[in-house]
Amino acid sequence: MEGGIGDDHLEGGTGDDFLSGGAGNDDLFAGEGNDTLLFGRDDGQDRVSLASAEEGATDLFIDRVLLGTGITADQLWFQARNADLEISILGQEESLTIVDWYANDASKADEFVLDDGHLLTRDKVAQLVSAMAGFNPSAVGVTRIPDEMPTVLESVIASAWQ
């Protein structure tokens, strides 16, 4: 399912879905199944809900986020926003918020995949959030992890993305 230009509301059903909001600030609801979400440059500020709204929903499915062409691990910034996980593309206004990431396991994406094949599993996300929590890379024009960031941050990024 693909949204177009503008703010879209896309809902996957039961079964395996492919969701791409496209340009605009989109709300994506994956539903049950092994779902794949595409997010890239010029996709706006999207919000994704992966878990079923039903009480006691379990995490029986594999959900994957594909990050668009040309996005590299050192261009992504991971941070906690209350119960949500926000992933920003440095130097741009684009962000992907995974709703209720910290509320339950069924709300978490299992994998984040770069177009060069590097993979981040959900168990490594906490390392990135923790390492990035003490910094603010929001300077205008910053498109990669700034050089003044400690090398420990670079090593955490390198070890998290396999």
Explain this structure.
The protein is α/β, with parallel strands linked by helices and 162 residues long. It has one domain (9-160). The protein is built from two helices and eleven strands; from the N terminus they run E-E-E-E-E-E-E-E-E-E-E-H-H. The protein has helices at 122-132, 151-160; strands at residues 9-11, 18-20, 27-29, 36-39, 45-49, 64-67, 76-81, 84-89, 95-98, 111-113, 119-121. The strands form two sheets. A six-stranded mixed beta sheet has the order 1-3-5-9-8-7. Strands 2-4-6-10-11 form a five-stranded mixed beta sheet. A hairpin with a 5-residue loop joins strand 8 (84-89) and strand 9 (95-98). Helix 1 runs antiparallel to helix 2 (151-160). It is globular, with a radius of gyration of 15 Å. The model has no long low-confidence stretch (mean pLDDT 87).
Describe how the helices and strands are arranged:
Layout: E1 9-11, E2 18-20, E3 27-29, E4 36-39, E5 45-49, E6 64-67, E7 76-81, E8 84-89, E9 95-98, E10 111-113, E11 119-121, H1 122-132, H2 151-160
Parallel strand pairs: 1-3, 2-4, 3-5, 4-6, 5-9, 6-10
Antiparallel strand pairs: 7-8, 8-9, 10-11
In short, what is this structure?
With 162 residues, the protein is an alpha/beta fold. The chain has helices at residues 122-132, 151-160, and strands at residues 9-11, 18-20, 27-29, 36-39, 45-49, 64-67, 76-81, 84-89, 95-98, 111-113, 119-121.
